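Q: How do we represent a protein-ligand complex in a form that can be generated token by token?
A: Start from the inputs.
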Amino acid sequence: MDRRFALMITPVVAETVRDDFDDTFQQVDPSAPALSVGELSTQRGDGVFESIGVVDGHAQEVEPHLERLAHSAALCDLPAPHLDQWRAAVARAAEACPPGEAVIKLILSRGVDHGPTPTAWVTAAPAGDFAAAREHGVRVVTLDRGYDSGAAERAPWLLLGAKTLSYAVNMAALREAHRRGADDAIFLTSDGMVLEAPTASLILRIDGRFVTPEPTGGILRGTTQLSVFEHLEGKGFETVDARIPAADLAAADAAWLVSSVRLAAPISAIDGAPLPIDRAVTDDLNAYLLSPR
Ligand code: PLP
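Then emit the structure tokens for the protein with pyridoxal-5'-phosphate bound:
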């Protein structure tokens, strides 16, 4: 793909006072090899990442993404990222983005086996075309995530609230959804509570209120969901974080999967049961999400 960009970062210690990080950045050819074969991100998926939406060169919701990167790093016992350094790297990547929609990825890996520092890099590339999902919606199936609603608290080493590089399970769930004739999935706990999609947060509208599964640590707190709720509250709608039993999915009169790059994809069917698309709300959400935030 043309106009890609990659920047290797030498992480500096979080408390370091500096105004300029240029000497810690090295722009590299994004199509050339850049990582060591001893890299733990590629060997074990041992690291954390963020995907930031970019619209006409403006990186969206940078602060919530940086805060979540720091939260994920803390959950994984990785050194705290220096947020000014990452902010500067995001600004460099945003300058390299083509007009229209793009995506900036931030990656912080545990580094090379027995190596001295974490490995870190930022990339930028044009976003995929999500017009069809935003317009016609996505059909979803519910899939068992294989743990119960107490797992995050009982077993924090599962890293359920961290955005780690270990996305093989999420990708396998999407393939299973496709095998079942759907476009996407909604994960359920083994005791039947609604969680999230493999790469998006879920918002349901039930009795006029917008509801999302409460962030108990078993799901990733979505930056897009938080931003959408703020927008809806500004318009006078009620929003709630709630424990949602799977049976309540049938009570929704509209629903969306929301994420930083695809934005708001209305759900057109759940487990084969059609769900109407609220055109006006969907278009309003996507217009909002495409505006500078
Ligand atoms: N949940 C999961 C598992 C995700 O991977 C993502 C995004 O990639 C989200 C939720 C949505 O997060 P955000 O809105 O910050 O993109």
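Residues 51, 196, 198-201, 220, 222-225, 258-260 surround pyridoxal-5'-phosphate (CB under 6 Å). The radius of gyration is 19 Å.
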